[in-house]
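Hi everyone,

Forwarding the result from last night's run.
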Amino acid sequence: MFYNYGYDNSEYNECDARGACSIAPKVSSLQEVLIIILRQIAFYSLKLDEFGTDITFQTENTVKGIASIISTTDYTDEQLLNIVGKYYALLLKTKNEYIKQCKEKKKRHIELKTDLKITPQTNLTGIISQGERLFLEKYKKNSPQTKYITEILLFVIKTICINLIELANYDEKYQDASKSVLKGLNILNRSPDRVILVKNKIKELVDVNASLIERISKAQLKYFGPIHKKYVSRSTSSGKAILVSGNNMSNLFSLLEQLKDKQIDVYTHDDLLIAHTFENFARYNNLKGHYGDCSGNCILDFATFPGAILLTQNSYQNVEYLYRGRLFTTEDIQPKGVIKLEEDDYSKLIESAENAKGFAKGRKLPDIAAGYNESELELFADNLSKKFEEGKIEKIVIIGHTYKTYKQDAYFNKFFTMVPDNWQLISFSYDSKKDNCYCINLDNNLVMIYTVLKRIFKDIPITSENIVFFITKCDVSSISNMIYLKTLGAKNICMSNCRPRINPSISAVLRSTYGIKELTTPQDDIKSI
């Protein structure tokens, strides 16, 4: 049984049902202001770089700034002011250093024109008003094509920043990728008529992102050992417990190390199911299993969990609705009501778990299949390439990671019943139980999905007209993934209807510029394929 599949709760998605993943208008305006500040930091930093100045501090903070924009949306007013103030101060420092060096080197300095005015007296309302005004001005100046291709560029930049933060979890840096973020942001400082320039930069950045993913894959295997196919328990046991949500396996690993002599059980949540399949996690007996039915159901899962909860990297949940006092995070910026942990010190989290009531009695639920065995994958890939070359397989359809909504469940349930037997399905999310479907549950772990696909397409040309990719998760990384596949020569890519998560106009640009189709109905899509 696959994660989130076949349970009553799978039709409930809080992002849609309650708007729990929506962004407040004031946060949206602040994000606009931050992007303006960060792209100016990028401009002056790159100028300093031309002088041979070390800009590591600027690049690292810019990456963190962009990652924080999308990973946390539940700010207090004080946090919002602090974030803007911090980056505006960095902008002034970088700009002044650039002007200073120009004078020392007797070079003419160039200053960016900006209508953004922030002083120590500027309050939050003033900053928000400027963000709204600048947002409207930007959209009046630029053509529709420029507006939306620029938004796509920002999606790709954000994806790179997320992956750079993840790579840093393994004590590794990729300075070239960090500098590419500055160069991408600097494009936004150019004149409005920049469509070709932006498209070329997008192509360059999706390649950078792919190399980042490969580095993360190697780092995960180095830290956590090889991956195996495993049946992960969904059952609970009586006793004190901690729930770890998000996708930061390093946080989970560190917590387990600190808990190895304590009688506290640990359960994973959201995209951390994959941790159970890595060999080095098996040494911890108190890693009991995976909790919850649906990755979007943070409110339901958190509210029913009787212990402490750790929100790790990219825990996108808006926790406004959740109980306070037992939510913790190691992230630089914590949502309101969430307790900040310092330098991997989990003592407060552990104390909270010990004081919580815990599970009074266990509950038995079916296990979840996750991961894969290398030998089985090798055998499948070899047989697939042979059958495809001989013409025994007409189409190869890859179904990627997904949100697992009720609507998607219904779509794929019908899709699987209608697919011809001579089509080979490769699913990373849905288990069809059909003989022509090779299903690998990797729990939305994009790094491992890339690893598997790289092996499968070792002997199969990805440029074939008979290969189709379904991208069904509407998150910040999906756009980068689709464009990267296009740069590799993939002919057929289909994406879910991502409204309201992705602006419909951006979806239209993806269709017109990159030839990416949108899923409609199983009947029509099979006919189209």
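The first strand starts at residue 230 and ends at 232.

Cheers,
N.
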